[in-house]
Amino acid sequence: MNGSVKLSALGFTAALIIGIVAFSPTAQAKQQKKPEVVKTTVNPFVKKYCVSCHGAKDPADGVNLTGLKTDADVKKAAKMWKKAGREVLAKKMPPQGSAMPKDEERKKFIDALNSLK
Ligand code: HEC
Questions:
Q1: Same domain, yes or no: 59 and 79
Q2: pLDDT value at position 31?
Q3: CA-nearest residue, atom 25 of ligand 1
Q4: Mutate to test the pocket of ligand 1, among 45, 87, 88 (most ligand atoms within 8 A of CB)
Q5: Which of 51, 87, 94, 104 would give a disulfide with 98, using CB separation of 3.0 to 4.6 Å?
Q6: Does residue 24 sit in the same domain as residue 45?
Q7: What angle do CA 21, 70, 86 make, to 5 degrees?
């Protein structure tokens, strides 16, 4: 009799602990955290099509497109990235004679920037 009471109390405690762990804010934050689009999309695109002219050292038109580490960094230089998106959309950048991204790649880049507004 006494033994089974102890056992069910133990089961209840175990369920409680599992519940706390599963629904703790940190567990939820981990599940909801999206990968940074800067890393998945923006930086690879820029590296491939822009940085040869817009690197950290003496960038064309003073537009330095390097140094993005997190999605939040795009907002810190929102004006420049807005312009970059516009140039890519209008197919002014990269300029004639450079390696050209496919329309699909342009779209992904622009969508990624728009998602950070
Ligand atoms: C071959 C070199 C070269 C490459 C590659 C290049 N650019 Fe440029 N970019 C320039 C030059 C030169 C200018 C300034 C003259 C002009 O606007 O054409 C410029 C200007 C710009 C400007 C400023 C435009 C304005 O009106 O103020 C932006 C933004 C820009 N580039 C973004 C990009 C992006 C984004 C990429 C990659 C998709 C890229 N560029 C690739 C050479 C380049």
A1: yes
A2: 58
A3: 83
A4: 87
A5: 94
A6: no
A7: 135
Q: How far is the CA of 16 from the centre of ligand 1 (A)?
A: 58
Residues 6+ apart with CB under 8 A from 4: none
Under a CB-based contact definition with an 8 Å cutoff, are residues 48 and 99 in contact? yes
Domain that holds residue 45: 37-114
Q: What's the pTM value of the predicted model, to 2 decimals?
A: 0.79
Do 23 and 57 lie in a common domain? no
pLDDT value of position 33:
74
Q: What is the pLDDT of residues 34-67, one digit of tens each?
A: 789 999 999 999 999 999 999 999 999 999 999 9
Which atom from ligand 1 is nearest to the alpha carbon of 99?
Answer: 5
Count of CB atoms within 10 A of residue 87's CB? 15
Q: What does the pLDDT look like over 83-94, one tens digit per residue?
A: 999 999 999 999
Using CB distances shorter than 6 Å, the residues near ligand 1 are 49-50, 52-54, 60-61, 63, 65, 83-84, 87-88, 93-95, 98
User: 5-41, pLDDT tens digit by residue?
Assistant: 676 777 777 666 766 666 766 655 555 677 899 999 9
